[in-house]
Amino acid sequence: MPRRGEVLFAVVVLLGIWHVLALAVQRPILPTPWAVGAALWRGLQGELAWHLLASAGRVLVSILLSIVTAAPLGLLLGLSPRLHRLVSPFLYLLYPIPKVVLVPVLILFFGVGDAAKILLISLILFFQILVLVRDAAAGIRPELVLSVRSLGAGRRALFRFVYLPASLPAILTAVRQSIGTAVAVLYLSELLATRYGLGYYIYIQASTFFDYPAMYGGIVLMSGLGLALYLVVDALERRWCRWLFVGA
How many whole angstroms separate alpha carbon 209 and alpha carbon 212? Predict the structure, then answer.
């Protein structure tokens, strides 16, 4: 994980490149970072804050829903070879399907409200978490389980001290890897019959009002949302999986 100073340096470099490109292009379609920052500040005083909250709420609920549903099933598949043989053909067929193509189906069944958007993002995260947790659970060394059982541990103790610690890094890794995809799908889903959300805000500012600084401000906020989620997952991993960083 890079240090704060290194991250700050990267931000300064990127802003510098952006500024140079804006000066070179000299067109309204690429405003300077300072113009975007001013528009972003003005927008946050108005409805932009509500758009940000709507998007953040949708993606957070989607992540929690996918973890609650996929992690237990992944553990069961990894620990039960018989169940894995039964379910793996279905998983093999469903995992490669791009879940975005299910948008019309979800809209038909759940309408154009938040339910369809949340389910779409959850489906994408669900399969990635399921596969990684399954592999992590299947890779638990049998002697580790036997050593804990020899101390008199029951199912609850095995879950707490063996299965959960072994699968938790896989859950966090899956969430981390899926954040970019989840935010991208969030943007696409918010173009469909909604009044609040950063995707809606970016699209309206770009195609209707041609307010390019405000449009870029929405893009920066959506990128910041993905970055914030990524940093939260990193922090949780360092707090909950401390054994992974011993000696780092």
Answer: 8
